[in-house]
What we know:
This protein is an alpha/beta fold. Helix content is about 40%, strand content about 15%.
Amino acid sequence: MNIIKDPKYLPVFHHIAKSAGTYTLSWMMMLCRKYNLILGKNEIPGWTSKRIRRSIVLLDEGKKLTCCIHTPTDVANINDAFERRPKSDEVTDYVELEPFVAAIASGDVEVFSISVDPITPGLAVSRLAIDKIMSASKRDHQLNFTVLRDSYERCKSLYNYLKSDRSKHEPTHGSIVSQNFLDFLASNEVEDSWLIRNILDMPEDQIIEPYHLTLAHEWLQHFRISDMSSVDTLIDSVFHGCYGILQRDIEPNVVATNINKNKSRRKVKYEFSDLPAEIQQTFLDRTYWDRKLYEKYCK
C-alpha cells in the first residue's frame, strides 16, 4: 500500500439524487477513517473514532456541502460554531462556511473529501465555497467525479423515495404533486437534466438547447464518471489517485456496519416497455439531455 501522505488532490463528488450518493458518502467516511489510521493519527493522545466526522457546510441559497473530515483537536466538540444535529448522530456537525474555512486554516480540521449536495441547480455558490476550502487545505487540484444512472431507473427511484417516509428529512419531501407514477412520467415534474442545469447555473425555466450540452461537456471532460454498475471501480480510482487507498483496505466488519443504501419500501415497478406508448414518448422527450449524457459517458 503506497499511501500519499501529502495529497495534492481533493476529491469532490457531485451528488445527483438517487445515483449512489448515500453509498458513495458511506465509502468516503470509511476511507477517511482508514487513511487517518494508516497515518497513525489514532496514536495521538485523545484519539477517538469520533474524530472522523461529517461536516454539513451551510451556504447561501439553501445549498450545502457535505465534507468528510478529521479533527486533530476535536474542534467539532468544543467550538460553538460547529452545531450538533440531529441528536442521534454523534459525528455530524453543521457549520457556516467562514468558521469552517478558519478551522481548516488553523489545523483544527483536515478535509478528506467533499460532496456537493443535490438541493437545487446552480453550482456557482458551491464552486466558490470549494475554492476557499481548497485554498485553506493547501490542495492544488480538485478531482471531480460523479455517477450517472439510466434516466428511467433514476426517475422510478426518485419517485419512490420522495413519496415514501424515508425522505421526510429532505426539503423536497412531498414535492411531487402528481397523483400517481404514470401522471408523474407525463408531467413537467420529471427533471430534464439536473446535471446540465447545475454545472451551467441554469434556471429551471430556461430551455436546454444543444449548445448547453456542448458547454457541459467542457466541464465534464475533466470529471471521472461512471454508471451505477461501476461505482465501486470509480470510488477506487478516485481515492487511490488522491490518497493511495482502496476499498479492499477497509476491514469487512467495518463495511458491514457502515455501508448505507437508500431503500424505499413501497415501490412502483413498471417496466418501461409496459408503459403506454404516449407516456413513453413524453418521458423520452423530457429526458433527452440526460440520456445524451448517459450515452456519452456510460455506454
